[in-house]
Amino acid sequence: MSDEHWIQTIVIVGGGSAGWMTAAALARGLDRRYCIRVVESQDIGVVGVGEATIPPIRLFNAMLGLDEAEFMRETQATYKLGIRFRDWGAVGQDYFHPFGVYGLNAELGHFFQYWLKLNQEGPHQEGGALALSDYSLCAQAAKAGRFDRQSDDPRDPMSTFGFAYHFDTILYGQYLRRFAQKLGVARTEGEVVQVDQNAETGFVTALRLKSGQVVEGDLFIDCSGFRGLLIEQTLKAGYEDWSDLLPMDRAAAAPCALKGPLSPYTTSTAREAGWQWRIPLQHRVGNGYVYSSRFISDDDAVAALTANLENAPLAEARLLRFNTGRRRKMWDKNVVAIGLSSGFMEPLESTSIHLVQASINKLLQHFPDRSFAPANRDVYNRRIATDMETIRDFLVLHYKATARDDAALWSYVRGMAIPDSLAERIALFEERGQLVIHPDEMFTPTSWLAVLLGQGVRPRSYSPLVAGQDSRAIADGFRNMKALIARRVEAMPNHADYLKHHGMWAAQAAMA
After folding, report:
1. CA Rg, the chain, in Å?
2. Residue 161, C-beta contacts closer than 8 angstroms, at least 6 positions apart
3. Cβ atoms of 278 and 350 closer than 8 Å
4. Dihedral, CA atoms, 206, 207, 213, 217, nearest 10 degrees?
5. Quick one: pLDDT at residue 510?
6. Of 438, 447, 326, residue with least CA distance to 392
7. Tens digits of per-residue pLDDT, 215-227?
């Protein structure tokens, strides 16, 4: 085929973490015959509050070939072993959603089913019911404020460990911008004032900037944030609204100085009209109140956020407005929306950056030529839609599975109708603790178990596959496992000490 058949110029509209993640990944994944250009304006701000991630971000950084110590210094990063949830199932209740897996010993096989069997039989235990978090290396390390490196050796307990990062997303975007430019990505400063389209096909052909410059391209990637400059304002892709399932539509965010130890986890505390995040970075703590404007005013939300900070805010609270849902088409004609322009799931389980990463990976798998085959676009759209719908269901679970009746929001979400896909998952789990995880699904059995059990969903029985097993032998195995995890955690270094010892501590960070 001639060169005219292939994409030659890729134009990314918008910088920030989504734009520069996309630019860096394409520059790394494609050969140098492609011209990649990012068009961004310093006059247009970025959201910049999605500071927590989930474990797949490590694969993305590895794909780029980033040096972890440099990345962590440049972004003031800390480690994240999971999320602590406070007051979600009921006021006063606390549970932990760990990364990694539950259990250690391969010979135990059906770990969770054995756990169910022991808890339902009872007499083989000392001191009452077994706490699932006691058998998670991540949960126990997080509780102790410790961290160590994951092992690739399946015989090592640290092979069950998992982690992600907290980082300053604005710094991450700037870091990736420098990285991408070294790989040949061009940057054009300017505000887009007009989008040119082919009169017959509707394909985008060029962007006209306020300066008068015209930027032409073959493939356009919309990283313009909530406004969806190309995918919505130009192509009218449409939006599927999920606010009836996820009624949070605003967030107030404000940083403060760290007080106390540098915890290796995110904290999510349920409030009267939503929930509050706490994300510890090296140089500050990120805080935000995600809420529904149906149940609280902006002023009262800011007041509630400020009243619950560990230190005085370092800046005035920023107010963000959003509408949970997704575009009906994430890829339309020759425009692919990545990041907030493709849709938004509230930050409850730190999925925003992951959806950027998932979109980039699938775009590389479905990378087009100039024919922009409809079948290729359709499959991409279905795959991203499935990713978003699975995340939606997981987030809805946090609200639906609650016993709270102390405020109007919680009464609403407890009684709301839920998607059939989620109702089926809950029904299967309630029967005998069965979980069906799809091959491409982002959340693991550990995630579903943590939230289902943490919010009070209990199986009525357990699998017949473990019914005939020797309960006393299983109980001995669990006791040994708990003791081994405790010894391993005790040997781990303190979280902040680990960062400093391994050259990950930024010079300008506040010393813990």
Report:
1. 24
2. 99, 100, 137, 138, 141, 148, 150, 151
3. no
4. -40
5. 52
6. 326
7. 999 999 999 999 9
428: enclosing H helix or E strand: helix 420-432
Q: How far apart are CA 156 and CA 389, in angstroms?
A: 36
Cα(32)–Cα(260) distance, integer angstroms: 48
Cα 104 to Cα 108: distance, rounded to the nearest angstrom: 8
Cα 214 from chain centre: 36
CA–CA distance, 261 with 23 (Å, rounded to integer): 36
Closest CA to 452 of 492, 396, 495, 387: 396
List the structure tokens of 348: 């409850």
Helix axis angle for 169-182 and 16-29, nearest 10°, is 30
80, 329, 362, 400: the catalytic one is: 80
Distance CA 99, CA 52 (A): 13
* Cα 63 to Cα 59: distance, rounded to the nearest angstrom: 6
Band (104; pLDDT cuts 50, 70, 90): confident
Tokens found for residue 31: 């050969």
For residue range 243-272, list pLDDT tens digits in order: 999 999 999 999 999 999 999 999 999 999
How far is residue 356's CA from residue 344's CA, in Å, rounded to a whole number? 11
**Residue among 37, 80, 74, 24 nearest 55 (CA):** 80
* Residue position matching structure tokens 């800011």: 302
Q: Report residue 414's pLDDT band, with 50, 70 and 90 as the boundaries.
A: very high
pLDDT one-digit tens code per residue, 134-171: 999 999 999 999 999 999 888 888 999 999 999 999 99
List, for residues 447-460, the tens digit of each pLDDT value.
999 999 999 999 99
- Beta-bridged to residue 255, according to DSSP, are 286
Altogether, the residues listed in the chain come to a count of 512
State the average pLDDT for the chain. Answer: 93
Q: What is the DSSP letter of 89?
A: S
Mean predicted confidence (pLDDT) in 413-419: 97
Specify the pLDDT at position 106.
53
Q: Which residue in this structure is represented by tokens 């690739």?
A: 152
Q: Please state, in angstroms and rounded to a whole number, the distance separating the CA atoms of residues 139 and 23.
A: 35
Distance, in Å, from the CA atom of 284 to the CA atom of 232, rounded to the nearest integer, reads 36
Residue 446 carries which side chain, given as an amino acid letter?
Answer: T
Question: How many angstroms separate the CA atoms of 278 and 309, rounded?
Answer: 9
Q: Does the annotation mark 362 as catalytic?
A: no
Which ranges of 31-91 does DSSP label H, i.e. alpha helix? Answer: 57-64, 68-75
Band (pLDDT 50/70/90 cuts) for residue 102 is very high
Q: How many CB atoms within 10 Å of residue 323?
A: 13
pLDDT of residue 512: 39
Instruction: Say how far apart CA 151 and CA 123 lie, in whole Å.
Output: 35
Report how far residue 39's alpha carbon sits from residue 13's, in angstroms, rounded to the nearest whole number: 5
Please report how many Cα atoms fall inside a 13 Å half-sphere around the Cα of residue 248, on the Cβ side. Answer: 26
pLDDT of 511? 45
